[in-house]
Design a protein that fits this description.
Shape: globular
CATH class: Alpha Beta
Distance between the termini: 40 Å
Low-confidence stretches: none
GO molecular function: hydrolase activity
CATH superfamily: Alpha/Beta hydrolase fold, catalytic domain
Protein name: Alpha/beta hydrolase
Keywords: Hydrolase
Largest sheet: 8 strands, mixed
Helix content: 25-40%
Strand content: 15-25%
InterPro entries: AB_hydrolase_1, AB_hydrolase_fold, AB_hydrolase_sf
CATH topology: Rossmann fold
Order of helices and strands: EEEHEHEHEHHHHEHEHH
Number of strands: 8
Number of helices: 10
Strand order of the largest sheet: 1-2-4-3-5-6-7-8
Radius of gyration: 17 Å
Structural class: alpha/beta
């Protein structure tokens, strides 16, 4: 199984295909497995890399480094270790925040960002972070089962919801430190400085981070576009994979077109 030791943690990744590199980042508590429908389709046209960031999926669960700065440091080292050339980073939810901050801190490393249902300035979105912090500490199993269904649009398959809950319960408990970091996070003051191409993909029915958040972030970001995935919630790449893949391809084509006109 492919692992890299990055900043004293073994991180699991998958790397298949050739061409422009797409680096996929999952959200809090899940894993690279959430990108299965994108891997299967896009590997024929791109180099597709998925990563389980520290504390999640098949990667190590260290007590340290579970902050935004820690994960971004891992991403920088990972990109350099694999010699990924100008990857387009596609992140969902918290992974979208990592992708955006990575682009602002290290624009020389990236060819673009696709922010899926994120990033978020947390006072404006639906997640009650103080409650989440408390309940995930003291009532982890029951609260995850109560909370995760809200990530998805109505009529989502119960099997998908249950699988997502299992991933979260299998992740390390130390990743909860991320919630304390994000409780005060607001990217809007820095977004006007972003020079890496970025496109926002967002589920129409996202109750955790409403689509208005993506629209507001895009308004602060030079040259940014927004595509809304109709009928999807917080995990559109799983809820509406065919529609999501088509929208993602359009965003990637827009990046390629922009690079030709520079």
């Amino acid at each position: 199984m492919p692992y890299l030791t990055i900043n004293d943690a073994q991180l699991y990744f998958e790397d298949e295909g050739t061409g422009q590199t797409l680096l996929f980042l999952h959200g809090w508590g899940t894993s690279g497995r959430i990108w299965g429908a994108q891997q299967a389709e896009l590997v024929h046209d791109f180099r597709v890399v998925t990563l389980d960031w520290r504390g999640c999926g098949r990667s190590d669960r260290p007590t340290v480094g579970n902050t935004m700065k820690g994960v971004i440091a891992d991403l920088v080292a990972f990109i350099r270790a694999l010699e990924l050339s100008q990857p387009i980073v596609i992140g969902v939810s918290m992974g979208a925040t990592f992708a955006t901050e990575l682009a602002m801190d290290h624009p020389e490393l990236l060819g673009g960002v696709v922010a899926v249902d994120g990033p978020a300035y947390w006072p404006a979105q639906g997640m009650p972070l103080p409650k989440i912090i408390h309940e995930m500490l003291y009532n982890r199993v029951s609260f995850a089962a109560e909370w995760v269904p809200n990530w998805f649009a109505p009529n989502t398959s119960p099997a998908l919801i249950d699988w997502t809950v299992r991933q979260i319960l299998d992740a390390g408990v130390y990743i909860d430190e991320q919630f304390h970091v994000f409780a005060e996070y607001d990217p809007r003051p820095r977004l006007p400085e972003l020079r890496t191409p970025i496109h926002y993909l967002h589920g129409e029915l996202d109750a955790e981070i409403p689509v208005e958040v993506a629209q507001a972030c895009a308004a602060h970001t030079p040259g940014a576009g927004v595509t809304v995935i109709q009928g999807a919630g917080h995990m559109p790449q799983q809820e509406k994979p065919a529609e999501f893949n088509a929208a993602l391809r359009n965003a990637l084509a827009g990046f390629a077109s922009d690079s030709l006109t520079d």
